[in-house]
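A quick aside before the break. I want you to see a complete sequence-to-structure record at least once, exactly as it would be stored in a machine-readable document. Don't worry about memorizing anything.
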Amino acid sequence: MYIQNPLRKLDVREQEEWQEGHIAGAKHLPLGQLSERLNELDPNPETIVICRSGGRSGLACELLIASGFNAISMTGGLNNWKDELVCD
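That is the input. The structure line, written in tokens, reads:
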């Protein structure tokens, strides 16, 4: 039996950026709030961290990895995203 590991998408952009459009199914935690809200995240699944261009997601990954998470920054961020974005 093959069990697929869940993949988490974490968007660390600011609220205004999030509202303009984000990847469906992503969780939103702005980078400035991440360290105090780590308890809202499960450290087990692989986490793809998203921002506009990759800078903030790289910083978020450093924090997450130091806290025991398996995190990867999405190369190029949403600037390189080719699929649709959703707005809430």
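Two observations worth writing down. The longest helix spans residues 55-66. The radius of gyration is 13 Å. We'll return to this after the break.
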